[in-house]
Amino acid sequence: MNLKINGNQIEVPSSVKTVAELLTHLELDNRIVVVERNKDILQKDDHTDTSVFDGDQIEIVTFVGGG
Q1: CATH 2.20.140.10 fits 2-62, yes or no
Q2: The predicted structure's pLDDT at residue 29
Q3: What is the pLDDT of residue 65?
Q4: pTM > 0.70: yes or no
Q5: Is 49 helix (H, G, I), strand (E, B) or coil?
Q6: pLDDT at 66 over 90
Q7: Domain range summary for the chain, segments of one domain joined by +
Q8: 67 versus 19: which is more confidently predicted?
Q9: 57-61 long-range contacts, Cβ below 8 Å, gap at least 24?
Q10: How far is the C-alpha of 12 from the C-alpha of 43, rounded, in Å?
Q11: What per-residue confidence (pLDDT) applies to 22?
């Protein structure tokens, strides 16, 4: 399956079915992130229920601490 993630075309395994699985595949599941799927910002509680499909546009914003 091909997804556009943060502006880059990325192929992910067909076993990735949800946003939560995508974050795990990208090794971002333990980070604080905001995910936008096809211009809709998702609540964290919806990551496990939101499906991803071939051609979806995903934006993932991560937070970095500093001081």
Answers
A1: no
A2: 92
A3: 82
A4: yes
A5: coil
A6: no
A7: 2-62
A8: 19
A9: 57/3, 57/4, 58/3, 58/4, 58/5, 58/6, 58/19, 58/22, 59/5, 59/6, 59/35, 60/5, 60/6, 60/23, 60/26, 60/28, 60/33, 60/34, 60/35, 60/36, 61/33, 61/34, 61/35, 61/36
A10: 22
A11: 98
